[in-house]
Amino acid sequence: MSGTGDKSYYWTGFRMGVPFLLVVMPFGLLFGVVATEAGFTSVQTMAFSSVVFAGAAQFAALQLMVDDAPILIVIATALAVNLRMAMYSASLAVWLGEAPLWKRALIAYVNVDQSYAVSINRYEDEPHLTLPQRIAFFFGAVTPVCPMWVVATGLGIWIGDTIPDWMALDFAVPICFLAIIAPMMRTLAHMIAAVTSILLALLFAGLPYNFGLLIAAVVAMMVGAQIELWMARRTDEVATP
Amino acid sequence: MSDSYIWTTIIVLGIGTYLIRFSFLGLIGGKDLPDWALRHLRYTAVAVLPGLIAPLVLWPAATDGEVDPARLSAALVTFAVGLLTRNVIAAILCGGATLFGMIWLLGAY
Q1: Buried b vs exposed e over A49-80: b needs ≥16 C-beta within 10 Å?
Q2: How far apart are CA A175 and CA A81, in angstroms?
Q3: Which of A24, A139, B8, B104 is 20 to 30 A removed from A70 (C-alpha atoms)?
Q4: Where the protein is mainly located, per its record (chain A) (predicted)?
């Protein structure tokens, strides 16, 4: 087992992670600005980014908090946004499950969408990798991204109020999210789930405690799963005349 | 927003998110989830995020909830570019350009 081999996998992962800075930096910066504008102190904003460490969920929580939603709704909705990470955790466990507990604990903490995606692609492309090589690759991929998420949040706090009105910063969050969601529309099931989510969220927008979004999300998830089943059955039928 | 509201959210959300991330990695040699669970989890992101932003796109607070042509067209362009190119950065840049272009054209500020 050569240490240099593991080291080179660390740097391969690092190089794969660097391009994601283009998404993480503006997103983190924006979180710093928006949270500060919402009335968070800089300590609270920094704590939010470093403890929760999940951009989409942080924005979702912040949006609801600004609307004065009850805390249970804030937490339930933000955790719903993060449920996808249970799936990441399950698929990483297949490749990294034999690692020592403290390493798995650390991997879990820094497991974000981008690092998950590049790592799992690499593991599937090169199934012969040793466990230390897989771990090295994973930590390489997160190294450029994760610290910069927190640094970018700090920069956002610092820039804070100096951003002028005409920059329409209020709309940076929807634009970022739309840009992230659009490439997720991989199948008909994903699209129908998204449309369901939109229609129900708008329909239930008047419900108290922002309960509408949770209903919309749960129904949309079930609709996506059902469409997937239905499509699978249909291809089966076509395949076996 | 009270301090306790903010801190409770940060701490509970931090713990909850960590437990989700650790869940299967924490179980040694974690085996696969049952099919039905995976099938639902695959759709969490597309089930939550579109619903979260739909009201922000249609009824922006910045225009007191009135439908705004600049923001609506920026949203459509962002989504269309993201769908066609699968490139997050390209989508953000085109959406931003549309937003500023429309605001400038309409003289909104």
Answers
A1: bbbbbbbbbbbbbbbbbeeebebebbbbbbbb
A2: 17
A3: A24
A4: membrane
Question: Is residue A20 domain-shared with residue A92, that is, in the same domain?
Answer: yes
**Residue A24: what pLDDT?**
85
Closest-CA residue to B83 (of B72, B94, B98): B94
Contact A200/B41, CB-based, under 8 Å? no
- Shared domain for A166 and A97, answered yes or no, is yes
A205 and A98 assigned to the same domain: no
Task: Examine the domain organization and report whether A196 and A153 are in the same domain.
Answer: no
Residues A19, A61, single domain; the answer is yes
Q: Which of B48, B64, B109 would best serve as a mutation to test chain A binding (most A beta carbons within 10 A)?
A: B48
A167 and A60, same structural domain?
Answer: yes
Domain count, chain B: 1
pLDDT above 90 covers a percentage of chain A that reads 53
Domain for residue B59, yes or no? yes
Q: Extract long-range pairs of A102-106: CB within 8 Å, 24+ residues apart.
A: A103/A135, A104/B22, A104/B25, A104/B26, A105/B22, A105/B26
Residue A19 shares a structural domain with residue A116 = yes
Domain assignment present for residue B37? The answer is no
CB-nearest to A170 from B22, B58, B60 is: B60
- Do B40 and A51 lie within an 8 Å CB cutoff? no
Residue B5, judged by CB atoms within 10 A of its CB (0-12, 13-18, 19+), counts as middle
pLDDT at A2: 44
Residue A225 has pLDDT above 50, yes or no: yes
Please write the tens of the pLDDT for every residue from A128-169: 999 999 999 999 999 999 999 999 999 999 987 787 777 777
Tens digit of each residue's pLDDT (9 = 90 or more) over A192-221: 999 999 999 999 988 876 788 889 999 999
HSE-CB for A90 with a 13 A CA cutoff: 15
Q: Could you report the predicted ipTM of this complex, rounded to two decimals? A: 0.86
Confidence of residue A84 (pLDDT cuts 50, 70, 90): confident
